[in-house]
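Lab notebook: predicted structure, single chain.

Context: the supervisor wants predicted structures on file for every construct in the current expression panel, including those that have not yet been purified. This is the next one on the list. No modifications to the sequence; it matches the entry in the shared construct table.
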Amino acid sequence: MKSNAVDQYILRQKGAIRIMMEILNDFLTSPELELSSTLKYGLPFYASDKQAICYLHKCKDGTLDITFWNGKSLFHQFKQLQLRDRKRMASLNYAKPEEMNLELIRDIANETKSSRT
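Prediction complete. Output recorded below exactly as produced.
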């Protein structure tokens, strides 16, 4: 289920960040993943059955992070995840829409969902 607040947040973004956020928002809330979106702490968050799965964060260097809850525990399975000295979270970082690997994002999101239930 999409959130109007998340849609409005995305519409305020510019350039590649906006395009990537639009793609990810549509993908994460699609019937394939069935995540709900909400705006928390000023960022788009995605959840399954009220359990946080991931959130989108615009980095200062102009890239976009998709950060996964408990992603650190999935690092052994998904080496593409970046830990960056975080205790629980891990993320994928993209500079351009064509870099995004939706299959990988789907696999990590599904694994995060199953590990949180």
